[in-house]
């Protein structure tokens, strides 16, 4: 039995070494990927829940790995955060999104996801201001999506950054709302313009009564606080009509469109394609 245990331990160790090795390889690849421009932004449209008209799109990063193919952001964003590479990567995302959105009709916005790690840099707002100046995108056409993790950073610094972004006309969205711990107090302490209802609630509406009640409650909360609400992960007509009926402002999800490359979104947004 002792022998067997030792054998199992060695197997476990080998498995762990393989995982550490795989992680190191991925980290090296990630460093190279930035230099080699293996990243691309996809865009997923957001529509007015009442009229169905386009309001803008969310930028979602994609990594075309030369060997592994498409790597999901869920797999490399955490690594980029741990290694600090999210700094350069995040700047690339902001610059690219602002530059690409410039060709869209002038009323459409682009939403960019910010990592909590980016908020550790007090110069974040300055960086974003410079990117707006360089690309020529007006601040009111940019939205930043932040998660609760960003609000768990140094509160004074985060507040200062968010206030500065707002003076530039940039809109601030609370992403994945309802999945964290103390989101309600954050809504009071931080200057949000929009709440994004997490897809885990959207997915189960309207059949699941509890999820439907939560979507309704968040929509009402947003309305009373003077914030817009967006439902993400809308996949079915039943979800769409229920959520729009509840007075939610915006819809986003596969029902409207999957995330698509820059040239596709520009085509979708071009006035000739207006429905
Ligand atoms: P997120 O910000 O919550 O983005 C929404 C995710 O849901 C996206 O996954 C999107 O493709 C997916 N989605 C949209 N509509 C539907 C739908 O109807 N059904 C389903 N099942 N899924 C839908 P994606 O692109 O894989 O991104 C995953 C996460 O990675 C994002 O979640 C965000 O947290 C992070 N991420 C993506 N791009 C960036 C980026 O540029 N910077 C940072 N910091 N994080 C990013
Ligand atoms: Ca998001
Ligand atoms: Ca989200
Ligand atoms: Ca999410």
TrEMBL record:
In its UniProt record, which GO terms are filed under biological process?
A: cellular response to nitric oxide
Q: Which domain of life is it from?
A: Bacteria
UniProt KW Membrane keyword: yes
Does the UniProt entry include the keyword Transmembrane helix? yes
Keyword set, alphabetical order: Membrane, Transmembrane, Transmembrane helix
* Domain EAL, chain residue ranges per copy: 23-273
User: Can you name this protein?
Assistant: EAL domain-containing protein
Q: Where does this protein come from, organism-wise?
A: Methylobacterium planeticum
The shown chain, on whole-protein numbering, covers: 512 to 786 of 790
């Amino acid at each position: 039995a002792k022998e067997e245990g030792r054998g199992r331990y060695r197997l476990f160790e080998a498995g762990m070494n393989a995982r550490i090795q795989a992680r190191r390889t991925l980290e090296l690849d990630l460093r190279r990927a930035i230099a080699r421009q293996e990243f691309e932004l996809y865009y997923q449209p957001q529509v007015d829940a009442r009229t169905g008209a386009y309001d803008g799109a969310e930028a979602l990063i994609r990594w075309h790995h030369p060997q592994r193919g498409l790597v999901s952001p869920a797999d490399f964003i955490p690594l980029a955060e741990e290694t600090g590479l999210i700094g350069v990567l995040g700047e690339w995302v902001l610059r690219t999104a602002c530059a690409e959105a410039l060709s869209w009709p002038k009323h459409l916005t682009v939403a960019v996801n910010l990592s909590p790690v980016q908020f550790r840099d007090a110069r974040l707002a300055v960086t974003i201001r410079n990117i707006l100046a360089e690309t020529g995108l007006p601040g009111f056409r940019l939205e930043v999506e932040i998660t609760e993790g960003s609000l768990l950073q140094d509160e004074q610094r985060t507040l200062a950054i968010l206030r500065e972004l707002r003076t530039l006309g940039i809109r601030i969205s609370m992403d994945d709302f309802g999945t964290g711990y103390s989101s309600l107090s954050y809504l009071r302490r931080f200057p949000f313009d929009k709440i994004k209802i997490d897809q885990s609630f959207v997915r189960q509406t309207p059949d699941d009564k509890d999820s439907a009640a939560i979507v309704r409650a968040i929509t009402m909360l947003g309305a009373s606080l003077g914030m817009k609400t967006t439902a993400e992960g809308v996949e079915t007509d039943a979800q769409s009509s229920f959520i729009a009926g509840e007075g939610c402002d915006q819809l986003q999800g596969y029902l409207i469109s999957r995330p698509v490359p820059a040239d596709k979104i520009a085509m979708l947004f071009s006035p000739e394609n207006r429905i």
